Amino acid sequence: MATSMQFELVCPDRLVVSEAVDMAVVPGSDGDFGAMAAHAPLLSTVRPGIVALYTNGKVVRRLFVSGGFAEVTGERCTVLSEEAIDLSLVTRADVVSRLQSADDRLKEAVDSAEKARAQQDKTVADALQAAFETVTSQANGAHAS
Amino acid sequence: MATLKDLKARITSVKSTRKITSAMKMVAASRLRRAQDTAESARPYASRMARMLDGLSTSLAGQGGGNYPLLTGTGKDKVHLLLVMTADRGLCGGFNGSIIRAARLEARRLLDAGKEVRFYCVGRKGYDALKGEYQSRILGTHRTRGSNGPTYDDASHVANEILALYEDGQFDVCTAVYNYFRSAITQIVTRTQLIPVATSGGTPAAQPVEEAGAIYEYEPDEEALLVQVLPLSIRSRIFSGLLESFASEQGARMTAMDNASRNAGDMIDKLTLRYNRTRQAKITGELIEIISGAEAL
């Protein structure tokens, strides 16, 4: 029985993750979906959010993606994203400075194209913050119990 | 005839030139290694993007397809945009020259065929060379910041501007002219059509959708996906073009500087030989004077 599948997370400049996992939960734009071995072939857009990789029923890695595409076949799950950050490496300062710069750019934007791009940056920064909060609160919860 | 002092001065000057060229060669060599690594690690994204796009466009074409200017073009073939990728700096052999020549040739060919030509220059050298002849036809330029090679931000910047121009109806077809990196010694001037996106999938009949053994489900749907994939794929193509071009630049510079260092070495050898001969001749001359002076007594 094929239980594990190959998960790949690819950025424009490098292959970020390529490993065998039991399940990958991907934030599709129509809702999160879990991809396991023998999943029906699927192409989906991805919204900014957390990709979680599961092995033996536990989360082994959480990564933040800035949106892009996911391709799922029976053996493989590939996520293409312009940006990917391992959430264990993110600090609160990063999140804050990023939100700040996105806000600044939004304020400074003059034409509509620039505004749209700044808005997108802002969305990504917001999502990063949300993702960061989720991860830290879960970690704290785990410590408390 | 050159005096000893002149020769000495020339030797010193050629020696310092050689120092500079060999240092530039070393720098180019290490940048080349890095550029190759970057180009290597950027490949998975580009290839997967292309695969996804191929799948999507064939599947859409199978259904009769919708209307996607980026995929199928504006229906016209009148105004061509040449995306010329050169370096910001010179001293890299024929690297910039060959690109500019290719761009000029292409421009002339298009103009002769009654088409309109526009340029978008990446890199200062291309802009400098083309602005004399085609100033009014240059729609934009971009310079990569820093010396560590193009980043994805550079590519998105260029892509955004080009896409905006396209939406504005400023051109119908966009072709990138850049150096494809074959090896440190060979760079091949390449033309790639960017817009409309040329997919490798031919006619829908020739390539059944189920070829890969998988019929995909699409989320939200094919059209929404395609609308998002297309700009990203153009970005990724521009990015890989920039990377190729940067690697080529470093390769070309390395070769050029290697030649220059070798030439300087040859020149130093020749000058040193002449210096020694002149010195010897001078000593001999002085000796003859002394001896003949002594004999005359």
C-alpha geometry of chain A = globular
CATH class of the largest domain in chain B: Alpha Beta
| Spatial order of strands in the largest sheet of chain B | 3-2-1-4-5
Strand content of chain A: 35-45%
Main beta-sheet annotation of chain B = 5 strands, mixed
Supply the CATH architecture of the largest domain in chain B. Answer: 3-Layer(aba) Sandwich
Distance between the termini of chain A: 35 Å
Please tell me the total number of domains of chain B. Answer: 2
> How would you sum up the major sheet of chain A?
5 strands, mixed
What distance lies between the first and last C-alpha atoms of chain B, to the nearest angstrom?
32 Å
Average of pLDDT of chain A: 86
Rg estimate of chain A, integer Å:
16 Å
Largest inter-chain interface?
A-B, 26 and 32 residues
Q: CATH homologous superfamily of the largest domain in chain A?
A: F0F1 ATP synthase delta/epsilon subunit, N-terminal
Structural class, from helix and strand content of chain A? alpha+beta
Please count the beta strands of chain A (DSSP E, at least 2 residues each): 10
Family (chain B): Belongs to the ATPase gamma chain family.
Subcellular location (chain B): Cell membrane; Membrane
Keywords (chain B): ATP synthesis, Cell membrane, CF(1), Hydrogen ion transport, Ion transport, Membrane, Transport
Protein name (chain B): ATP synthase gamma chain
Structure description:
- Chain A: Belongs to the ATPase epsilon chain family.
- The complex is a heterodimer of chains A (145) and B (297).
- Chain A has 145 residues and is an alpha+beta fold.
- Chain A folds into two domains: 5-87, F0F1 ATP synthase delta/epsilon subunit, N-terminal (ATP Synthase, domain 1); 90-144.
- Helices cover 34% and strands 41% of the residues of chain A.
- In chain A, helix 1 packs antiparallel against helix 2.
- The mean pLDDT of chain A is 86.
- By secondary structure, chain B is an alpha/beta fold.
- Chain B folds into two domains: 4-24 and 257-290, Helix Hairpins; 32-255, Pyruvate Kinase, Chain: A, domain 1 (3-Layer(aba) Sandwich), CATH 3.40.1380.
- Chain B has six helices and six strands; from the N terminus they run ααβαβαβαβββα.
- In chain B, helix 1 runs antiparallel to helix 6 (222-296).
